[in-house]
Input
Amino acid sequence: MEKMKKEEASNPAFTMREREVASSSGKACISYLACEPLEREGFINAFSTRLGGVSQLPESALNLAYFKGDQKENVAENRRRFLTAIEAPQAEIITARQSHSTERFSVEFKEQAHGPQPECDAMITRLTDVLLAIQTADCLPVLIADTKTRSVAAIHAGWRGTAGRITERTIADLMQTMGVNPRTSIAALGPAACARCYEVGEDVIERYRKEFGYWSKLFTNFKEGGKAHLDIRAANVQQLAFCGFTEDRIHVAPHCTMHQNDLFFSYRREGGGQPSKVGRLLSVIGRETADKR
Ligand SMILES: [Zn+2]
Output
């Protein structure tokens, strides 16, 4: 009970903002979550909600991903509203063709935004005027920024990617290719299915048991039939800590996509086995341009 109360508590590192933006019918109200320690260091970051858009998922939904469940014009309008709300109207959004892999991609050119999406589940960059964007509906988005080299990373961490240590692998890329020191970096973990909601089967537990010495810390609520609840955030906090991130530089949003389904899209709550019925949230990170700072 104590643990549940704690989890429900808000984290002062995160602020839910509401912004009115112009729309064809007057005004739309866009809500998004921002991690303030990242902002203070000059990094644009935002975790979207489902509120204030034009998509029929089911209505007025802010779906930010181009996929077969939505029309292109809707997504374009939703993205325009979102970028306006977070005060980055000119930024290029770069998304990936995500597949729960552990593939990473280094974005070297701004034009990547208009080319084919890289096939990966994590991206890193040092470019300005671009926002690396992860699309989720229950999986965990992990955003990282290094205050010294100004490099950023965005990671899609579902149970598969996490089991494959995608967060550790991405940090290794940052260290090797960008010269990043985790001790000068900040991580923000966004809204995702929480440990109270995220039930997984025996196969998942077995995979984690084989992979992680600390696996038992990540599961609760073991049930007959082999199911249990996975704490995907704790799993990724472990990976960040293993790489040298100190506790004060890891910020975990308390929001849950499943039990706060009024605010966020949840594949597990809404999908019913049909991914095309569920909108996608976007978690973005980028460097503020010199003139804005
Ligand atoms: Zn929950």
